[in-house]
Amino acid sequence: MRSVQDHLAAVLAAVAPVPPLDVVLADAAGCILAVDVIAQVEVPAWRVAARDGYALAAADTVTASVTALTLPVAHDVLSGAHGQLRLAPGQVVRIASGAPLPQGADAVVPVEETDHGTAHVTLQRPAVPGQHVRVPGVDVRAGDVVLAAGTRLGARHLAVAATLGRGRLRVHPAPRVVIVSVGDDLVEPGSAARDGGVHEADGHALEAAVRDTGAAPVRVGVVTDDRATLREALEDQLVRADLVVTTGGLSEYPHDTVKDVLAPLGTVRFDHVAMTPGHRHGFGTVGGGLGGDGAVPIFALQGHPVAAQVSFEVFVRPALRSMAGYTDLFRPAVTATTTTSWASPAGTRQFVPATVVGTPEDGYQVTPVGDPALPSTSGLARANALAVVGEQDLSVAAGQRVHCLVLEG
After folding, report:
1. Burial of 267 per CB tally in 10 Å (0-12, 13-18, 19+)
2. Cα–Cα distance, 19 to 24 (Å, whole number)
3. Among 287, 346, 351, 356, which is disulfide-ready with 238 (CB 3.0 to 4.6 Å)?
4. Is 130 left (phi over 0), alpha (psi -120 to 50) or beta?
5. What pLDDT, in 10s, does the model give residues 251-265?
6. What pLDDT, on a 0 to 100 scale, did the predictor assign at position 65?
7. What stretches of 154-199 show up as alpha helix (H) in DSSP?
8. pTM here?
9. Contact indicator for 354, 367 with CB cutoff of 8 Å
10. For residues 138 and 199, what is the distance between their CA atoms, to the nearest angstrom?
11. Per the omega criterion (within 30 degrees of 0), is the bond before 110 cis?
C-alpha cells in the first residue's frame, strides 16, 4: 500500500507548468505570468495635470491682486494634446486631467477652487509649486519590474501592462483538463435511471472543481466499459488535453476495464493508497513518443462521488495548480478542536467532510458532517472543510486537535 505522501510526491514530480505562450491581454486574465514585465518607458512620460483645472506658475499667484486672485486664461489643453505650449508670464491655461503641462507651469489649481472662468479666472487662494502635478516616472520608472513572474493576472495587473503599451503577455495558459466518466451503469442527470443505473455525478462535480482551480475543463461525458470504445475515446481526447481525469472502472471485476485500457497506452501505475475515502488510484502518463515526449498526465479516480472529490482535492488540484504555474499549490489549512468523537481506520489517512467555525484569535472548532465512516454526497455538500486524521490514530476524541483543509474561503 502506498502512502498519501508518496503518491502526492510522485504526482507533483510528474507534472510541470504548461509551456508559456504570448497571449493578448484579454486572454491573460487569470493566468500566471511566466516572465517579469519590465518597464521600457516612464509613466507618465512627462509632467501631467492630476486634476481638471488651470495650469499656471505658482509664483504668479503670489504677485496677483491680494483681493482678487484673477489671471487671464490664454488657452485650453486637453488630454492627449500634441506638442507642448509655452506659458506666458502672468497667464494660465485651462487643462484637463492627464494633459501635459505647458512649459513654464509648475502647478494646477483644481477647477472647483476657482470661479470656472473662461477668459479670466479667479482663484480662491495662491497656488503651491508642484500641487496636482504628476511628474515623469511617478507611476513607473524605466527599468522597474512592474509585474513579477508568478503573478496571477487580474484587472489591476492588466491595467499596468496596458499602461506600458504591452498588448500581449507571456503566461502559463490554463491547463486543459479532459474529464471522462466510465461505466455502463451511468445515466446523465435529467434522464430516468434504468434498473441498476445511477446518475452520473463525478463528471459534473469535477468540471466545476477544475474550473475553480483556474483550469479549463472539457467534460466528455459518459463512456461505456467496452475496451475498444474507452480506448478510442481516450485517444481522441489526448490531442486537446494537458491532463486527463477518468472516474470509475477501477474495481477488480472483469467488467471494469480502465486498468486494461490504460496499461498499454503509457506509464500508468495503479495503487492502493492508504487513505479513505478513495483508496484505489491510477496515475501516470499516456500518449507521447519514445522518452515520453508529449505524454499527458492522467488520473484514474474511483467512481464514488465523495472519493472522487476528496482525491481531486488531495492530488489533482495541487497538480493542476503546479501546471498553471502557481507556487502555492494547496488549500489553506487550520488546526481545529473536535466537538465530538469518531473512529478512524488503522494505518489509513482519513479525510472527513466537516464544518469548521471560529476565528484565528479565538481558535477553530470542527464537527464532522454525517457519519465519518460512511461519507455521503449530501454531507460533503454541507461541509466547508476536510478534517484529516493521521494513519496512526485509531480514534478521534472530543477536544482533540486535528488538521483541516479549508474548502471554502
Report:
1. middle
2. 16
3. 287
4. left
5. 776 666 888 899 888
6. 52
7. 155-163
8. 0.82
9. yes
10. 60
11. no
